């Protein structure tokens, strides 16, 4: 689901005035194919009677994220290329939104649905943390912070 779609390469030699159309198309595609259906699903998972459905979504998200980490050979929290980052986080977003819904509305505990393997959870956090770090660096360079 759009993992590493349109990887952004930091340009060090020249200014990029406008992003290419594919950059905006990727965000639109993610929004329409991923975010809208997610919010439609979440709106129906409002109490403990639908907790089994939420558990199934969370299990699938975790399984797909594990497969993705293995597919890109991301086995340690070391960043090999600090100049590349993808801002597309649909599976992370699904996991976060459904976890929030599970805990807040459906009486599910994190221990019930999250794996106990700390190493997997550490790897899982690396991609969103890289995006935040990249964004912070950009803001510092632009002088907006």
UniProtKB/TrEMBL annotation:
MF GO annotations: ubiquitin protein ligase activity; zinc ion binding
Keyword Disulfide bond: no
GO cellular component: cytoplasm; ubiquitin ligase complex
Top EC class of this enzyme: transferase
Domain of life of the native organism: Eukaryota
Keyword Membrane part of the UniProt annotation: no
Matching PANTHER family: E3 UBIQUITIN-PROTEIN LIGASE UBR3, UBIQUITIN LIGASE E3 ALPHA-RELATED
Protein's name in the database: E3 ubiquitin-protein ligase
Organism: Aromia moschata
């Amino acid at each position: 689901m759009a993992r590493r779609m349109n990887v952004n390469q930091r340009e060090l030699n020249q200014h990029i005035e406008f992003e290419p159309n594919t950059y905006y198309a990727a965000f639109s595609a993610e929004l329409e194919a991923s975010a809208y259906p997610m919010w439609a699903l979440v709106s129906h998972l409002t109490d403990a009677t639908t907790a089994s459905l939420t558990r199934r979504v969370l299990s699938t998200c975790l399984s797909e994220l594990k497969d993705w980490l293995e597919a890109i050979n991301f086995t340690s929290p070391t960043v090999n290329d600090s100049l590349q980052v993808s801002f597309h986080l649909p599976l992370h977003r699904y996991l976060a939104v459904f976890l929030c819904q599970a805990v807040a509305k459906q009486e599910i505990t994190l221990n019930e649905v999250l794996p106990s393997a700390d190493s997997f959870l550490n790897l899982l956090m690396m991609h969103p943390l890289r995006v935040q770090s990249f964004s912070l660096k950009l803001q510092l360079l632009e002088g907006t912070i």
